[in-house]
Amino acid sequence: MKIRLAKGKWDSIECDALIVPLFEDEKKNEGEFTTALDEKLGGLLSELKSTEEWTSKAGQISVIYRPSELRTGRLILLGAGKRKSYDAQAIRTLIMQAVRRVKSYNLKRVAVYYRRSQVETAQAAQAVVEGVVMATYSGDDYKTEDKSKNFIEEILFVTELDQGQAQVEEAMKRGEIVAQATNLARRLVNEPGNRINPSGLAQTAAEIAEKFGLEIEVLGEPEMEEKQMGAILAVARGSDEPARFIVLRHFGAPEGEAPPIVLVGKGVTFDSGGLSLKSPKSMEQMKSDKAGACVVLAAMQAIAELQVKKNIVGLIPAVENLPSGRAQRPGDVVRSMSGKTIEVMNTDAEGRLILADALCYGRQLQPEYMVDIATLTGACVIALGHLRAGLFSNNEEVCQKLLQASERSGEKFWRLPLDEDYRRAIKSQIADIKNVGGRWGGAITAAKFLEEFVGDVPWCHLDIAGVGLFKEGQELKGPTGFGVRTLVEMVSS
Fold first, then answer.
1. Which entry of 101, 278, 340, 412 is annotated as an active-site residue?
2. Is 388 a catalytic residue?
3. When you count CB atoms within 10 A of the terminal residue's CB, does the N or C end of the chain come out lower?
4. Please, what are the domains in the chain?
5. What is the distance between the alpha carbons of residues 215 and 246, in angstroms, rounded to a whole number?
6. What are phi and psi for residue 78, nearest 5 degrees?
7. Which residue among 100, 174, 237, 352 is the active-site one?
């Protein structure tokens, strides 16, 4: 599918479908555009408004076939909601909905008209392209019948430029790269456990590294034994599939030896809970417990393709968490790479164990800062629902950097506390620390556990348990790829 800029008037573009956003709080005679549109439609827009068939509420879509005064086969009216809410994330979401509506029709060329708002043209262009590309992913890779179709061959971003053409085209290219990476994360999260295990994830990482010019190192269990990664190996013991520790490196800093930024992603390719077995219903979507790893892998792809001028290292501890006669038991004590001993109270709190060794490994790289991302706790879902991810940080500057990146990416986070008083909940009588606290504040005590392995390195922990999948009632289904856009924005800003 080609995506290109088209300069010119909205009513002169020749295409199969033209998507035009309309605001809920604009009147017919409020602006030149709506007046001209109504005239081109012979007063149809006024008629639809008078009967309340058209309200311009956010997400409303109406298709007008063969408008005689326009050079398009279909005019797609797209409700944009209130003007004040029409930001880059709204553009991205609305365009995604509109393209999903028409992509299965036999339409080759679709145009999106950009209406000026508080969003500058380049930023809007990137958001439009991200929405278009993300709308093309369907997640039905294993269907042999009734597969989702995408007939669109060309998408046009139509604007009467108020910025330099090169700047807008650069933003569009960036949007395409980041959205393709987001779709990669969604596709990998969607891979079932019998298709992607730790070795399979490592093989996928190797293919991406070769294609996009990343350096890669994959540690097997013997190498992890040498590095004393006891926490990762303890989780992996219950499975016949050996653990892998994936290290991806992007060298982009002009000064060469600059400290790296370290991104860490939780890679549990399937999580049964181990001997602390999950219920069957809770286990159904546990192929998605590798979402953090998939986000880091996809972000590294985008970082390499964008040629970000920083040194960045991606770390992915990859395991399966299964019950067997070899599996770790509640009450076991394991020694982590840092030397700290951990009392394992619940084998279903395995993500923090593998992240402990990964964060220790990352700390030894003497990074500028570290960010880990993981589907870590159900407690975070209880606290924040499915709209925001949890954010924890030991450093104000890095925390603000991430929040500013999330504002630009449209992915929402909410900062939660890391008060030292929460540390008491994970104090162990027989070891340095235990892997779970009590029932209350579970997302915070999990973050406090991870903080033990960070040392004085500036660090952010992102708990994406509630936002990793689209939920019932949302138009899209399956993995979201949440976090890719924010991580790429953060390291390249």
1. 278
2. no
3. C
4. 2-159 (3.40.220.10), 183-492 (3.40.630.10)
5. 11
6. -120, 115
7. 352
